[in-house]
Design a protein that fits this description.
- There is one protein chain.
- The chain is of the alpha+beta class.
- 64% of the residues lie in helices and 10% in strands.
- It contains eleven helices and five strands.
- A five-stranded mixed beta sheet has the order 1-2-3-5-4, with helices on one face.
- It starts with 12 loop residues before the first helix and ends in an 11-residue tail after the last strand.
Length: 388
Amino acid sequence: MSDVGIGQRPENARQRTVKSLWTGIWLIYLSAPVTDLVSGGHSAGAVVAGALGLAGFVVWYMMLLFRTGRRDQVRPVLISLAVLAAESALLVLTLGQEWLVLFVYVSIASGSALPLRLSRWTVPGASALMALLTLTVPGDRWSLLGGLLIPALLGGFAMTGVRELVRTTIALREARATVAQLAANEERLRLARDLHDLLGHSLSLITLKSELAGRMLPGQPEKAAQQVADIEQVSRQALVDVREAVTGYRRPRLADELAGARMALTAAGVAPDVPAGPPDLAGVPEECESALAWALREAVTNVVRHSGARTCAVELLRRQTLEGPVLELTVEDDGSGGAGDGPGNGLTGLTERLTKAGGTLEAGGTRRGFRLVARVPGAEGAVLGSGA
């Protein structure tokens, strides 16, 4: 447990002990009133009354400092400061100038226990009252005023600054904890999105090939064995993808996803119209390529699982806009399933990915079936605009 700072309430016995010792050190400057009581030539009654007054002042002062940090306790603090100031004034007027030092503690208590909006008035107020009383007691008034006024003002405002610094530090710690929590939430969302995209596609392909192998097994064992081999390959790749997603290094490549889309569509009995050969990705940021690869994977997964389509066309085009080049991916099928009645987890995740990469997503039904269009900047620093 860390030690309690100025402007904070102690929360346990150790912190109370530390704060008591730290505060008690500064009570050494009350030696002037104590010396005055011992050798000041006062009557026995005055000495007893002064000692009781000084003890009451110290107790009240310590209790006031230990109540700092309560936002709803401003009025009791003001009342306590008024009591301290009145007691100090009474002791000065009855016992002499050595007791003016009490106002330094009143000023410091104001800076420690009150928020800045109030302490900026109470600190000068306590110092002004001390200055006024200095002019009413006998002795070297100007020397005494110079020796106490500056410590009262500097001590009070220094404690105000330290209090605000502690408050700011606490606020920064809370903000850091909030940022860490948000980062953890973002990482969980990323992981959930990646696992959805990865496993949805892979498990759909495994299911289709398993069904196909089951149908082939009685009469075509060799072809069934090939399907089982494909299942093993897809499973191993899915395991690798999941591990990469967990560690945060998963960045799918568009060329790999085009090849995987052709295989998945063929296995599902959907005639694929997929570009052959590696795509031209010159100048395309890696983040934009990954976003399009995820979009292609999600779109093909939806076609395989939901659409009931017979054909599916994939098109990858470069378009020049007023804001710069754009790389556009279109996936269109002739099925009736589409993506459901509303955007699911997959399309929602795609929208987040593309937005993060500076792109956009359009998805909806057409006369032919369902179409998904994903666009990303086609070069570093490009901004999306309307199609050319």
